[in-house]
Amino acid sequence: MLAVSGWAEGYTPEPYSSELVKKAEAGDAKAQFDLGICYQNGLVVTKDNKEALKWYTKAAERGFAEAQCMLGAWYQNGIVVAEDEKEAMKWYTKAGEQGQADAQYSLGIFYENGIGPARNEKEMVKWFTKSAELGHLGGQEYLGTLYYEGKGVTQDYEKAVKWFTKSAEQGGVNAQYYLGRCYAKAEGVIKDESEALKWYTKAAKRGHKDAKKALEELKSK
Q1: Which pTM value belongs to this model?
Q2: Across the chain, where does the E strand assignment appear?
Q3: Using CA atoms, how far apart are residues 23 and 32, in angstroms rounded to an integer?
Q4: Domains in the chain and their CATH numbers?
Q5: Tens-place pLDDT, residues 5-56
């Protein structure tokens, strides 16, 4: 998810300056979002979450997807504003419909757990798929799990392996564990203990308890 304490990975905000303020006050949505980041994180200016919220809201209302996603996270977590799942859902949906992968992933979580809206597996699969196709590590990991367990979709180990691999290669620890399991049990792939060992090891080094156990069992054979 877009970090509520910062900004999306890979996003480079414009640093605070009088020129940034002028652009934000003139209605430049990106400048408004960047100014919000400056206030939220105390970059040059004094940290002020209320001022950050003001600028995030302005940017979100002008259709800036990253600001909409950030606003969704703030409403979800009750930062400055009162916790409001419906309002969070509203902003995540606006951002998700514009192709913002973090928001799409969050929508998948909302529909999976019935947060805000009623639980809806069709919508859950839809949003996890969208985020996964955009390269979102968490979306890929979740989608792999859905195919592995047959949750909301027809069980399909090959598709599970596809998405686990994409996520695992980005560092998704649960995906690394499940990928190791798929290779160990020949689920969706040809059995390959060396590949199982590789992925179990990666997950175990990250502290994954099931991966540690599976690794010990594999080494004891």
Answers
A1: 0.92
A2: none
A3: 8
A4: 160-221 (1.25.40.10)
A5: 445 556 788 899 999 999 999 999 999 999 999 999 998 999 999 999 999 9
